[in-house]
C-alpha cells in the first residue's frame, strides 16, 4: 500500500489536478510523501501510551451477539484506551461483560487489575478503572459528526494476540445501523456505526479509531464476515460523540439513564407514526395520541430512509435526559400541531436488559457460584466438547462445598444421579433431595480427570438450614 500511496501522491502533485492548490503543485513529490509519512508515524507513536491490552476471565456474552442464550466465555482479549488522567479506560462491553476478573497491560509491559466502573450493553460500551499512581496518557477526543467519507483513519489495538498494532484505511461509510439484531433482550439497540476498511481482527474490539490529527473519532467494535466466516475487510466503530456521553454517565452514575416517551411506533416515508400510546406515560400526559404522525422534534425534521428515521427517533428519545422537555410537531387529522412533552426515565423492562435470574438459595448456601458450560468452550476448561453440566466459577473457602472438595473449574454433572445442565436444574435437584430426605450427592468432574462423587451426608440438614433461614 505504501508504494501505491507514494505513486498516487506523486501523480497528484506532478500532473496538476484542477482542484489541487497551486502551492501544493509546486512542492517536491518526495517532500509531500515524507510529510505524510511523518504525520502517520506521529499518530501511531502518540497512540501507543494511551492504548492498553485487556484480558478478561469468565465473560458472559450478551444474548443475541452469538445466540439467544447468554454464554460463558472463559477468556476474552481486547483493547481499551485511557479517556482521562485518572485512569478510566473505555472499551467494548462485550469484551468484559460480567467478567469475574479483568487485567490490563500497559505499553511498558506493566500489568494491573482493572475495576469495571459500568457497562452499557445497549451501545456495547464499558468503562474500566485502574490505579496508576500517576496521570494517564490520553488521546484527544475528536468530533465524529465532523468526520467525512474518504478521510484516513487508523484502527489501533491488539489483534490476534499481537500487542499494539495499527492499520490504516479510510472512512467508507457513516450511520450504519441494523448490523446487530435488536429484537431480543440485552442487545445493541443504539447503532450508528462508522464503517472503515482499516483492518480489524479479534482483539481490536474496544480500541480507538484515530484520525490523522491523532484524535479518537470512534471505538472499534465489530467486523462483517461472509457466510463462510471469512473476513470481508469491513470494520465498524462506535462514533466517539455517542461514546463520550455514555462514558460520562457510566463514570458518574455507574449506569446510563435514558429518556422515555412511552409509545409504539413505526417509521414511514413522511415521519414516525404512533401505533399506540401507553397509559400514564410521558407521551400520554403530554397529549400524544394514537394515529399521530411525528414529523419534527424541536423544529428538526426527521429525515432519511425509514431505517434512518427509526434510529434517529429512538436515539433522540433515549439520548435525552429524563426531565427534559421536547417539542413534537405532529400531523393529526391532516393538520400540524405542536406538543411539548417532558420525558421520563426509561423503565428496566424497556432497556433491553436480561431479566434477573431467580434466587438459588441452596447454591448460595453451599458457597458456590456456577454457570452453564457451553460445549464450544468445554475444551478451554479441560473437558470434552460432549461434557455437559455447570462449571464452578468461585468457591467460598469457608463453605460446605470447599470442605468437601469442590474447586473452581470443577464441572457439576449430576445431583443424586439426575443430570443437570443449568444452575436452575441443579437448584431444583437439591430441593427435590431435601424434600425426600435423601442423602445429597453431587457428581463432579475435575478438568482432565474422571468423575468423582461428593457426598454431603450429615451436612444435608445444615445446607437446608442455610438456604431457608
Structure description:
- The protein has 469 residues and is α+β, with helices and mostly antiparallel strands.
- The protein has four domains: 2-48, no CATH class; 53-255, Thrombin, subunit H (Beta Barrel), CATH 2.40.10.120; 259-350, PDZ domain (Pdz3 Domain, Roll); 361-467, PDZ domain (Pdz3 Domain, Roll).
- The chain is 22% helix and 34% strand.
- Strand 25 and strand 26 (451-455) form a beta hairpin.
- The chain is flat, with a radius of gyration of 27 Å.
Profile the largest sheet: 6 strands, antiparallel, barrel
Main-sheet strand order equals 1-2-3-6-5-4
**Portion in helices:** 10-25%
Unreliable runs: 1-18, 63-69, 181-186, 457-469
Counting helices, strands and paired strands, the structural category is alpha+beta
* Whole-number mean pLDDT: 80
Our estimate of the beta-strand percent is 25-35%
Overall structural domain count: 4
Give the topology.
Blueprint (H helix, E strand, L loop, with lengths): L1 H14 L6 H4 L3 H20 L2 E11 L9 E12 L5 E4 L1 H4 L4 E5 L5 E10 L4 E5 L22 E6 L7 E12 L16 E4 L11 E4 L4 E10 L5 E9 H14 L5 E2 L2 E6 L2 E7 L4 H5 L6 E5 L2 E2 L4 H13 L6 E8 L2 E8 L1 E2 L15 H6 L1 E5 L17 E6 L4 H4 L7 E5 L2 E2 L3 H13 L5 E5 L5 E5 L4 H8 L2
Helix pairs in contact: 1-3
Characteristic terms for this protein:
about 475 residues, alpha+beta, six-stranded antiparallel β-barrel, six-stranded antiparallel barrel, 26 strands, about 35% strand
Amino acid at each position: 500500500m505504501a508504494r501505491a500511496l507514494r505513486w498516487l501522491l506523486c501523480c497528484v502533485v506532478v500532473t496538476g489536478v484542477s482542484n489541487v492548490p497551486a502551492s501544493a503543485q509546486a512542492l517536491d513529490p518526495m517532500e509531500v510523501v515524507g510529510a505524510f509519512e511523518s504525520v502517520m508515524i506521529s499518530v501511531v507513536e502518540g497512540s501507543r501510551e494511551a492504548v492498553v491490552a485487556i484480558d478478561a476471565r469468565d465473560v458472559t456474552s450478551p444474548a443475541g451477539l452469538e445466540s439467544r442464550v447468554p454464554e460463558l466465555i472463559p477468556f476474552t482479549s481486547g483493547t481499551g484506551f485511557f479517556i482521562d488522567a485518572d485512569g478510566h479506560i473505555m472499551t467494548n462491553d462485550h469484551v468484559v461483560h460480567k467478567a469475574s476478573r479483568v487485567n490490563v497491560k500497559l505499553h511498558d509491559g506493566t500489568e494491573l487489575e482493572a475495576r469495571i466502573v459500568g457497562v452499557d450493553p445497549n451501545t456495547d460500551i464499558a468503562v474500566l478503572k485502574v490505579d496508576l499512581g500517576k496521570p494517564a496518557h490520553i488521546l484527544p477526543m475528536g468530533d465524529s459528526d465532523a468526520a467525512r467519507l474518504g478521510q484516513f483513519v487508523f484502527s489501533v489495538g491488539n489483534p490476534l494476540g499481537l500487542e499494539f498494532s495499527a492499520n490504516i484505511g479510510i472512512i467508507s461509510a457513516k450511520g450504519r445501523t441494523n448490523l446487530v439484531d435488536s429484537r431480543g433482550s440485552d442487545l445493541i439497540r443504539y447503532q450508528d456505526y462508522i464503517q472503515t476498511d482499516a483492518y480489524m481482527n479479534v482483539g481490536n474490539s474496544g480500541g480507538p479509531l484515530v484520525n490523522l490529527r491523532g484524535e479518537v473519532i470512534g471505538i472499534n467494535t465489530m467486523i462483517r464476515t461472509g457466510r463462510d466466516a471469512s473476513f470481508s475487510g469491513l470494520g465498524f466503530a462506535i462514533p466517539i460523540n455517542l461514546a463520550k456521553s455514555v462514558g460520562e454517565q457510566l463514570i458518574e452514575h455507574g449506569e446510563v439513564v435514558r429518556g422515555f416517551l412511552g409509545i409504539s411506533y413505526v417509521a414511514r416515508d413522511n415521519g414516525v407514526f404512533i401505533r399506540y400510546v401507553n397509559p400514564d406515560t410521558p407521551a400520554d400526559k403530554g397529549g400524544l395520541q394514537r394515529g399521530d404522525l411525528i414529523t419534527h422534534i424541536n423544529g428538526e425534521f426527521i429525515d432519511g430512509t425509514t431505517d434512518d428515521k427509526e434510529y434517529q427517533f429512538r436515539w433522540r428519545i433515549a439520548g435525552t435526559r429524563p426531565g427534559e422537555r421536547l417539542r413534537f410537531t405532529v400531523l393529526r387529522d391532516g393538520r400540524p400541531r405542536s406538543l411539548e412533552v417532558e420525558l421520563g426515565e426509561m423503565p428496566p423492562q424497556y432497556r433491553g436488559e436480561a431479566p434477573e435470574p431467580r434466587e438459588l438459595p441452596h447454591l448460595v448456601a453451599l458457597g458456590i457460584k456456577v454457570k452453564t458450560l457451553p460445549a464450544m468452550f468445554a475444551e478451554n476448561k479441560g473437558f470434552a466438547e460432549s461434557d455437559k453440566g455447570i462449571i464452578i466459577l468461585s468457591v467460598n473457602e469457608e463453605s460446605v462445598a470447599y470442605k468437601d472438595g469442590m474447586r473452581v473449574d470443577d464441572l457439576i454433572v449430576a445431583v443424586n444421579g439426575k443430570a443437570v445442565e443449568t444452575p436452575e436444574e441443579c437448584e431444583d435437584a437439591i430441593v427435590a433431595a431435601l424434600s425426600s430426605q435423601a442423602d445429597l450427592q453431587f457428581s463432579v468432574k475435575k478438568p482432565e480427570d474422571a468423575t468423582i462423587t461428593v457426598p454431603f451426608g450429615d451436612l444435608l440438614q445444615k445446607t437446608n438450614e442455610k438456604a431457608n433461614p
